[in-house]
C-alpha cells in the first residue's frame, strides 16, 4: 500500500455512530483507515460527497425483507456520484434501553421505519409498547442515552448499545433471520472510478419508449449476451403519466460481451446511464 492509499478516508453514512451503515463501512474498508462522518438523511449524505466533506459515501439501497429504499434510486440518478462497490450485511436487530430497564418497563420504542418493519412480529407480543418511527436506529439509541430516558427503548445494533452504554434487553428480534441489507459505496472522484479494474457487475438506469414489448426486448438482449440479471426496479417518471424509469443490476463474466450488450440495447433506451461498474460484493456478519 502506498502512502497515498494509506491516508485516512472520510466515509459519510446515513445515521449516527453505531448505525448499521458504520458496521458495513468498517467491513468494506477493513484493510484501510477510515473516519466516519454521520449524516441525518440520505440527501445530506449525497451533499457531503458532492461538497467533498467526505471522500466516499455508503448507502443502503435494499433489504431482503423490507425491499428497496425507492427514494435512494432517485438521489443516485440525480447526483454525479457513481457506485464503486457494494457489500451485503446480515442485519441483527436488538431491543436496547438504559441499564436496569426491563421490557415490561418500556412504553415506547423508537427506530428507523425499516427496522420496525423487520421486527413487527416480536412486538406483537407486547401490546403495551408503542412503536415510533425515527430517523435512524443509532440516533434513537444515542438520544435515550443522552437524555437518560426511562421507559423508552430502541431497535438498534449491539455496536450502538456498546457505544452509548445501553443494555441489550432482547437479541436478534428480527422476524426473519435471513435479513440482509445491501449497501452501495459511492464516489464522485474520477480517480476512484478509474481504480476499478476488471469489474463483474454493473448498475444502469434507463427509460423506454411507450411501445409494446420495449422492456422485454431489452431484457432479451441482455440475456442473449450472457448478462445475469440480479435486480430490476421501476420508478414512475414525475410529470410523465404512467411512464417509468428502470434500474437494472446485472453481473457478467466477459467484459467485451458486456460492452456489446450495452451497445445493443442503446437503440431501445432513452437516457441510458451507467450508475457504476464494480465488483460483486461479499456478504458479512455484523
Automatic annotation (TrEMBL):
<dbReference type="InterPro" id="IPR045865">
    <property type="entry name" value="ACT-like_dom_sf"/>
</dbReference>
<feature type="domain" description="ACT">
    <location>
        <begin position="203"/>
        <end position="279"/>
    </location>
</feature>
<keyword id="KW-0057">Aromatic amino acid biosynthesis</keyword>
<dbReference type="GO" id="GO:0004664">
    <property type="term" value="F:prephenate dehydratase activity"/>
</dbReference>
<protein>
    <recommendedName>
        <fullName>Prephenate dehydratase</fullName>
        <ecNumber>4.2.1.51</ecNumber>
    </recommendedName>
</protein>
<dbReference type="GO" id="GO:0009094">
    <property type="term" value="P:L-phenylalanine biosynthetic process"/>
</dbReference>
<keyword id="KW-0584">Phenylalanine biosynthesis</keyword>
<feature type="site" description="Essential for prephenate dehydratase activity">
    <location>
        <position position="181"/>
    </location>
</feature>
<dbReference type="InterPro" id="IPR001086">
    <property type="entry name" value="Preph_deHydtase"/>
</dbReference>
<dbReference type="GO" id="GO:0005737">
    <property type="term" value="C:cytoplasm"/>
</dbReference>
<comment type="pathway">
    <text>Amino-acid biosynthesis; L-phenylalanine biosynthesis; phenylpyruvate from prephenate: step 1/1.</text>
</comment>
<dbReference type="Pfam" id="PF00800">
    <property type="entry name" value="PDT"/>
</dbReference>
<dbReference type="InterPro" id="IPR008242">
    <property type="entry name" value="Chor_mutase/pphenate_deHydtase"/>
</dbReference>
<dbReference type="InterPro" id="IPR002912">
    <property type="entry name" value="ACT_dom"/>
</dbReference>
<feature type="domain" description="Prephenate dehydratase">
    <location>
        <begin position="10"/>
        <end position="188"/>
    </location>
</feature>
<keyword id="KW-0028">Amino-acid biosynthesis</keyword>
<keyword id="KW-0456">Lyase</keyword>
